[in-house]
Specification:
5-stranded parallel beta sheet; alpha/beta; 230 residues; SGNH_hydro_sf; 7 helices; Rossmann fold
Length: 230
Amino acid sequence: MKTEISLPLAIFFSDNGNGSWVVSNATWPSDPSYFAHSFSDGPVWNEHVANALHLELVNIATGGATTNNGFVQGRTGPESEIPVPSTAEQIASFLSWDVPRPGDVFVHWSGVNEILFNPNVTGSQTTSWINENIETLYRAGARNIVLGNYNDIETFPGTYNASGYQSDNVKSYMDDLSIGLRNIVGAYSAYANTALVEAQTLFRNIAANPEEYGIDEKYNATYSSIPTIQ
């Protein structure tokens, strides 16, 4: 069904949001301190962005999602046992009931859960699936596209000092993914408005200077259900 909204949309395909609450039949996350059933204690980045840009938020993201479930299956739940829609499926869902408009902004922020669920994948492999998703959006009419990268996997509070996350492949994954994302942004910049949110640089600054950001214990996790790499 076509959405009747006067404002341009901000559409988010990602691995966060409150979709886990839906796919878990309203059982996860169960901690009442999580705001609006998302993995946060308050409004999250996409809500702030939509408000700042005066865009109508359409958040299709689901915690635990990967870029393509045929490549790496995304999961959520207390034991990461519940399969979730990938960003490819999130895009297909949106395009089944709406079409891009000239002022709509599409944010595709994905790629971290692949290495969390499978330590043998590479950043370039994940990038190829992200590129397919962006091509789908572009061919459907999307002309404002934003991508984002992440902090280094081995510095996540839930993975810090975990033996399964110390391999050379894991440590190089985010740099390789970021190179691929920059290439995608550059390639499509000739045909659309594109941008990359450099979260990796920000998080590296936070890790190096946590006190400047008001962080006392940078490696303490608030959400501890991280899949174990065997």
